[in-house]
Amino acid sequence: MTLVLLIALAVMMLGAAVFAVITRELMAAVLASGMIGLLASVIYLVLAAPDVAMTEAAIGSGLTTVVFLLALRRIKQLGGSDHD
Amino acid sequence: MIKRLFIVLLLAVTVYLLYPLAVLTPQQTLGAAATHVTENGVSELGAANLVTSVIVSYRGLDTLGEVTVLFLATAGVGFVLFRRREEKAVKSTTPRAASEFLQTGALLLWPLIVLLGLYVILHGHLSPGGGFQGGVILASAFLLVMLAFPGAALPDSLRHAMESLSGLAYVGIGLAGLLLGDYFLDTRILPMGAVGQLISAGAIPLISVAIGLKVGAEMVTILGHLRKEAS
């Protein structure tokens, strides 16, 4: 049961990662990379490492995403477009 | 042609690196250090959460190093982004206000997230969590407010004072361990108390508080610099 859950989470992570690479929308790519962190933290939780899961959820999916979003806003101001 | 070659080479290296995962049998017995920690950790340090006693005490010097790395990163971000401020001051525009949903939601959630962060910090020696995790949760609470209210900012002096004082407290507790206890960052300088109580485990909760405040202040500083750069 746990193994099935882990494999499902890992497949979702891979899907989010591939989506982040191939999508043309930068905003969607940033959100997808945040989702990778969130799914990773769920995996840590299932694998009985709640301490790591907490850090991963806060840093990997929270703060990193915000740093990317701030960078995205800066790029837009400099005249770049939302698309690649 | 050379690009293809590199791709094939990279794939081969990846396969080579991942191959052990397929054939490796997991180690069935704990190593010497792990055995010592799992058998004697609770009785030696009095912390119910073994992860925290490893992070704060058994390898406390590493944690001090990690906090130092984070401090250097903060200093680096501040150094790199500081020089641009004068150029930008000319064309500073008032940032667009966030939507009412975000503002109301942020004001509603902010105190709850701060409470969770403080809980995680203070109960680091009892339940999952600790200084680093709680500090990041605290920072995310302030981050939410920063997103909802673009003009709002913690006073620089408060952040800097919190950051420096907590760093000083961390090193001070470490030195106290050297003087009163047996080694640098000895957490047994304070009464151990009963395992599972909030006030127990010697100096571990104090170190957690110092780490939490320092990490929180540093994260808020980094994000504040980046936000200033982006607005």
Structure in words:
Chain A is mainly alpha-helical and 84 residues long. Chain A has helices spanning 2-22, 26-46, 50-77. Chain A has one domain (2-77). Chain A contains 3 helices and no strands. The relative contact order of chain A is 0.15. The model of chain A has no long low-confidence stretch (mean pLDDT 86). Chain B has one domain (48-230). Chain B is 72% helix and 0% strand. Chain B contains 9 helices and no strands. In chain B, helix 3 (50-58) crosses helix 4 (60-82), helix 4 packs parallel to helix 9 and helix 8 packs antiparallel against helix 9 (204-230). The longest helix of chain B is centred in the C-terminal third of the chain and has 27 residues, at 204-230. In chain B, 33% of the residues are buried.
Helicity of chain A, in percent?
Answer: over 70%
Helix fraction of chain B by DSSP (H/I, runs of at least 4): over 70%
Let me know the number of strands of chain A: 0
| Secondary-structure element order of chain B, N to C | HHHHHHHHH
Q: Could you say how many structural domains of chain B there are in total?
A: 1
Order of helices and strands of chain A: HHH
Kindly name the structural category of chain A.
Answer: mainly alpha
- Tally of DSSP β-strands of chain B: 0
- Main β-sheet description of chain A: none
Proportion of residues in β-strands of chain A = under 5%
SS field, number of helical segments of chain A: 3
Radius of gyration of chain A: 15 Å
Q: Biggest protein-protein interface? A: A-B, 16 and 22 residues
Number of domains of chain A: 1
Oligomer, anyone? Answer: heterodimer
Taking the alpha carbons of the first and last residues of chain B, their distance comes to: 44 Å
What is the number of helices of chain B?
Answer: 9
Shape of chain A: flat
Mean pLDDT of chain A: 86
Estimated radius of gyration of chain B:
22 Å
Low-pLDDT segments, ≥5 res of chain A: none
